[in-house]
From TrEMBL:
Lineage: superkingdom: Bacteria
SUPFAM superfamilies per UniProt: Dimeric alpha+beta barrel
Pfam families on file: rhaM (PF05336)
GO biological process terms, semicolon-separated: rhamnose catabolic process
Species name: Phytohabitans houttuyneae
InterPro entries in UniProt: Dimeric_a/b-barrel, Rham/fucose_mutarotase
A GO molecular function held by the record: racemase and epimerase activity, acting on carbohydrates and derivatives
Protein name: L-rhamnose mutarotase
Amino acid sequence: MRRVCFILRVRPDRLAEYRERHTAVWPDMLRALRDTGWHDYSLFLHDDGLLVGYFRTDDLAASLAAMERTDVNARWQAEMAPFFEDLDGRRPDEGFTVLDEIFNLDSQLEALDD
């Protein structure tokens, strides 16, 4: 299963509301994420607006495409878009930058055991 880490930037004047919106995400959004292959999904927010997301998935492209086909995702992305900087007309799920994984402790420990 692939580990995916991504970044976005939340507008500094919207940080408190962004945090609040994630204290109780819509139940149908939670189920859609689970059902489309997003596992162990977490968001981390720095005080300067840097948002780091992490999740695991069998197939990133398939998980993104499956979410694209859900009604709840369109509603959620429309509500969340105003919170972000530098989307240039894209939705947040289209505008995040995926980071390359360069180190994983468990993977390197497993390689030692082989």
